[in-house]
């Protein structure tokens, strides 16, 4: 058996990144805009998106990029999905605060302009806008020879919501039910480890996929390459989540039955800890794990804990909802996400995430 591989040895230390972000935040000053005026900040401990005041509404903003998944796209010269990845990483964060995404701007940095590459990225962004139901309000391109060596893509999304519709985690309580929405695959996190495992094996991205990539809910060719599987775009959850929130407002007058939403990105299940500083979380019935994760874990000799800390492991988003409304909410979501399921519950046993697999345990994000 080869030495165990992990994210840190592949170049991304989650703990170090957390410390760096904390240092950055500690150096920032509060906004000069005062409470009650447009642009004043709204406290949001979880940090899935920033909230600011805007009259009778709140505006929400999020910014993110595709990350090193782009290196695989560039290696096989296929950028058809990267715009969807970029959009998803942003709008999915906005959903976590109860916002409806409405607009997006992108930022493309390259060592040298290439009209064909820009056209492919543009077509991908257009498809992403359709999936998220947002307006592409502008963007920026930069040629940065000497700073970047290949395409980098990031963006910023804007959303809005009523003042009393913010989902901040303050309504979370013991007994809340966790509803999981399935991922489409790896999404856009953990690719430094993915690439490291593939390099160790001596494979290329154009090699035939060495495992059966068929998985419930996604379309893939009969004979895919590794790149075909690795570049499956991040799922955009706007349709089920915005649809649910609008449904609750129309039927119940508020979204208060939804107590918290977590986008499962870098940090895996530890993202749940961002929603509340005292409550605990238990994953009792995990989502089915797509085959690429099982293959990567086997080939890299990666521990269960490291896999669930680095990747989504088939779970793209979690909704914590009132226990007495869990079944009706799940039924609504399944109209758009048939694979959605109840996966666990919130409890009052300290600030930790536990799992049906006892090796998977988190006490900090």
Structural commentary:
The structure is a single chain. With 365 residues, the chain is of the alpha+beta class. The chain starts with 13 loop residues before the first helix and ends in a 10-residue tail after the last strand. Helix 3 packs parallel to helix 4 (115-132). The chain is globular, with a radius of gyration of 20 Å. The relative contact order is 0.17. The protein folds into two domains: 50-164, PurM-like, N-terminal domain (60s Ribosomal Protein L30, Chain: A), CATH 3.30.1330.10; 177-355, Phosphoribosyl-aminoimidazole Synthetase, Chain A, domain 2. It has ten helices and twelve strands. The mean pLDDT is 92. It has helices at 14-27, 69-75, 82-95, 115-132, 191-201, 226-230, 238-252, 291-300, 304-310, 326-333, and strands at residues 41-42, 50-54, 57-65, 100-110, 135-143, 152-162, 177-182, 258-263, 280-283, 315-321, 341-347, 353-355. The strands form two sheets. It has a six-stranded mixed beta sheet. It has a six-stranded mixed beta sheet with strand order 8-10-7-11-9-12, with helices on one face.
